[in-house]
Specification:
With about 150 residues, the chain is of the alpha+beta class. It contains three helices and seven strands. It binds guanosine-5'-monophosphate and zinc ion. Guanosine-5'-monophosphate (5GP) binds next to strand 4.
Length: about 150
């Protein structure tokens, strides 16, 4: 099971890939930071610059880059540099993740404006867990637009 090691509010926590606190949890945490990057994590690798990506935004806490397998004319992933397994884990992180969810949404809006889809409309999607089809266990917002989209999603 993929695990993300986190240290938040003085407690060492280990999350499973879906963001649940693992019972087997004695992970090794970095003493100097609240949250460590996960060596085998794809998006930690992109954030570190070790894995190439076509970036469209590059901030202190948040980056955005084009999805490698776009599902719409505009398909950008908005990703925090720090590792959280999914949006539920980020929302539950308290002070450790303070303001980060706001920042993800703010960057998503800026990306939509820069890509020219602000008026035509777009989706911001956080797939969370297996039933939603989450395949990368590092929280990311999909920004999708540039074509009409059906509802409900498949
Ligand atoms: P999820 O399925 O977790 O909601 O979304 C993961 C997304 O990451 C997918 O849309 C997938 O196409 C994208 N992805 C997977 N590997 C890479 C990669 O190496 N580079 C980029 N830019 N996107 C990737
Ligand atoms: Zn990560």
């Amino acid at each position: 099971m993929r695990a993300a090691r986190m240290r938040a509010a003085g407690h060492a926590r280990v999350y499973d890939w879906a963001g649940r606190v693992s019972r087997s949890g004695a992970g090794r945490c970095c003493p100097a930071t609240m949250i460590v990057s996960v060596p085998e994590c794809l998006f930690c690798g992109v954030a570190a610059g070790d894995i190439p990506a076509t970036k469209v935004a590059d901030g202190e806490r948040v980056i955005a880059f084009r999805d490698i397998n776009p599902q719409a004319p505009v398909h950008v992933l908005v990703v925090p540099r720090d590792h959280y397994p999914n949006v539920a884990a980020l929302a539950a992180a308290g002070d450790a993740g303070k303001g980060l969810l706001d920042e993800l949404i703010a960057v998503a809006r800026k990306v939509a404006a820069a890509e020219g889809i602000e008026d035509s409309g777009y989706r911001v999607v956080f797939n969370t867990g297996p039933d939603a089809g989450q395949s990368v266990a590092h929280v990311h917002a999909h920004v999708l637009g540039g074509r009409p989209m059906a509802w409900p999603p498949g």
